[in-house]
Amino acid sequence: MIDRQLFKLAGASAIMRKLAVLEVLQAIFIIGQALALSAVLTQLWVGLPLNWPLLLIFVLCFILRRVQDTYRDGMLEKYASQETEKLRKQLLNKVFNEGRNLVQRQGTGSLITMALDGVDEVRQYIKLIYSKVLTMMIVPIFVFVCMLFLNWISAVVLLLMYPLIILFMIILGYAARDRSAKQFGNFQVLSNNFIDSLRGIDTLKYLGLSRRYSKSIFNLSENFRKKTMKVLRIAMLSTFALDFFTTLSIAIVAVFLGFGLMNGKIGLYPALGILILAPEFFLPIRDFAGDYHATLNGKNSFKRINELIAMPSQPSENLKLTDWQKDDELLIKNLRFNYKSAAEIGPITMKVKGYQKVGIIGMSGSGKTTLINLLSGFLTPSTTEITVQGQSAKTMNIPDWQRQLIYIPQDPYVFTASLRNNVAFYTPDASDEEIKEAIHVTGLDDLVKDLPDGLDTIIGQGKRVLSGGQAQRIALARAFLDKKRKVMIFDEPTAHLDIETEIDLKERMLPLMQNRLVFFATHRLHWLKEMDYILVMNHGELVEQGTYDELQEKHGYFTKLMQGMRGEVND
């Protein structure tokens, strides 16, 4: 129920001490409120005039209790928000540092859920645990001691019912915890499935499988709904059992006090005091149980986020590399990579030198993207021997290497920000003249003319909708502005564009590749003649490599691949 890691947060001891003082004050206000009200009603019952000082004490305790609650909630909200934002930053830093390696292992939907909904649940978890637990530990003790002085028999009866309530809470709580943990895993699967469905909806429509796949999504979500209802049934049963036993306890005490009043064995003042304090005695545990399900979700999220943050980092190499120059070499020998599904990439042996345009060609699923991710350092090879700028390494996850990279994927990310900030993302100090030049070179002039506020127009999600070609041009404009980075990596950047847009972009991309080392994964044939060197992939293996003319002369797999892509038939 309570994660010990929760109390290792920064400032946890200080906030707990403050809360303990506030809970003691709350107990005093509750007791003062109950005793003052009992005294006022008793005096009125025996015919005495209204005791205004006692009534004022009741009102004052009531107001101070509410003020204390407001102050406590505000303090907890501020603390919980600060700590969860730190947690969110740690998680986002982990995702940023690990890159695609972590995303591919955990799933995009799962990470998004943790960074958004998960962090919000943790914030609620911190607030509930810190306040509810301390209230449950302090307030009932003070109330019980007060009831002992009023009528010790009633106090003992209420105390004997307390362990029974806790026992039912534990039994039902374990059941709810197990169901909730399973449901939390189902939610992560559903999140990943939903994100993957959104990404592939165009392909599914193109293949005519969208209707069939919609049934799979419906079945998955319906299964999730049914399991959620089972969790809620247990949570509602727990609440019902708790309310039943607390009500039964108070009813038993009320009957006992009623007979005592009728027989003259107990006075009206202590009887009223007991009846007013009895609900307050059980209120902390009822509040705790009522929020138990919410705390379970928060605990699962808190545990999961800490597991993600604590995951071993992808192995990296601390080499001191200089900016890539025309005489530098990258040599890779016997590179292999294994997915959990047992699919293997490799062995791959290749050598590039200086400023080259290296094309990577192959059918879908041949391993082009995996090779790109290995060259980028996003994935760690199972085995390999790498020599870069004369230094040995076991992975391309080298900070000095990645600082030189310009990476342009199939779907470049457009931030919800101004066009100016999107273009100058890697070079925030770029002047307006430089940004306008980059926009002109990449053919974005017409877009700027259509935007109501020009460079200051906000684009991105929920704002100005951009076409795939426009998004790619923004990515190219970023590359144009960045003159320092000498290594460009393209992962099929024109895969989703029509041929007219692609040809137009090609004319603007080729000048950007000059005096740079370029790795260009594609399945479009017209790019290959522009490449200085070509790597041919098939089923995860590097089957051929060489210049365009050398590969043509071999009449091997490259030739067959070219003929197949052109639709030519060999007899």
From TrEMBL:
SMART domains cross-referenced by the UniProt entry: AAA
GO biological process: cysteine transport
CDD domains on file: ABC_6TM_AarD_CydD
Stored InterPro entries: AAA+_ATPase, ABC1_TM_dom, ABC1_TM_sf, ABC_transporter-like_ATP-bd, ABC_transporter-like_CS, ABC_transptr_CydD, P-loop_NTPase, Type_1_exporter
Domain ABC transporter: 330-564
ABC transmembrane type-1 domain span: 24-297
One family name in Pfam for this protein: ABC_tran
Bilayer-spanning residue ranges: 21-44, 50-67, 133-153, 159-176, 234-260, 266-283
Location, primary (coarse class): membrane
UniProt GO cellular component terms: plasma membrane
Highest taxon in the source lineage: Bacteria
Membrane topology: Multi-pass membrane protein
GO MF entries: ABC-type transporter activity; ATP binding; ATP hydrolysis activity; ATPase-coupled lipid transmembrane transporter activity
Compartments where found: Cell membrane
Alphabetic keyword roster: ATP-binding, Membrane, Nucleotide-binding, Transmembrane, Transmembrane helix
NCBIfam families in alphabetical order: CydD
Protein name from the UniProt record: Thiol reductant ABC exporter subunit CydD
Native source organism of the sequence: Candidatus Lactobacillus pullistercoris
Lineage, highest ranks first: Bacteria, Bacillati, Bacillota, Bacilli, Lactobacillales
